[in-house]
Request: fold
Amino acid sequence: MTRFSSLLAATALAATVFAGAAQADYPERTITMVVPFAAGGPTDTVARLVAESMSKDLGQQVIVENVGGAGGTLGAGRVASAEADGYTVLLHHIGMATSATLYRKLAYDTLNAFDYVGLVTEVPMTIVARKDLEPTDLKSLVEYAKGNKDTVTVANAGIGAASHLCGMLFMSAIETSLVTVPYKGTGPAMTDLLGGQVDIMCDQTTNTTKQIQGGTIKAFAVTSPARLDIFPDLPTAVEGGLPGFEVGIWHGVYTPKGTPPEAIAKLEGALQKALKDENVAARFAELGTKPSSDADATPAALKAKLEGEIARWKPIIEKAGQYAD
Reply:
């Protein structure tokens, strides 16, 4: 071996050792968790609880950055194009799957632009209405909606929002198109429901629990497989007469494609520890949800969930014909 080739080999070995050491020391600085929705919303609430707890295990602060707009696709695109070094992660909900069909043009390939860390939680939905709406149970609500389909309004927080997806599923289940009223966020939509300007909304327990408990809106059903401890007297949608109507707004953590496996492993471990944090579990319970299990808080489980949900929602979205440019 020549002196020059020996020098090259030594340099390559040193670079490999340095890279390995760098990954072993990960993280060495602040990690940014991008939430593709506005601060104060349901997904932001989940993210901030998890980020705070993950920071303790990782030994570095995990800060939340809100990059809202275009149904979550702007924030997802921001992460897809970020450096794949483990210092930029994405916490997104079910919209990660539905945007693949809802948006005719995306700046990223949903299934190939990200690596996976794990599932965080699956938040149940609630079918609610303004408090003075005439129906008293889900069966009479369906009959009322069908009989007044040209005037009954269904509010949502915008294309791709959880409330938009659940509203589409509700209209598909009752085989009736209603008047859809999109807002620029969950807050304005709930404000108008509270004020009686719109009739119905289907949204996450993280956004409706306080109003249901306060009696300021009328609740008809939860969309979980079983009744919730927080609302023991509120029937499931299936119990209320909508067979197969089960939907939860699941959340997962992603990184840009090509993130070093060592970094993903540390993020996965920190996520799993965060989901065992008593404070996180208690706050999730107050919001009508619970942390994902260790089996679900894994890259493989999140990847399988995303692929399955894209396949599930594609025909529903195509039937509704509610696309975004």
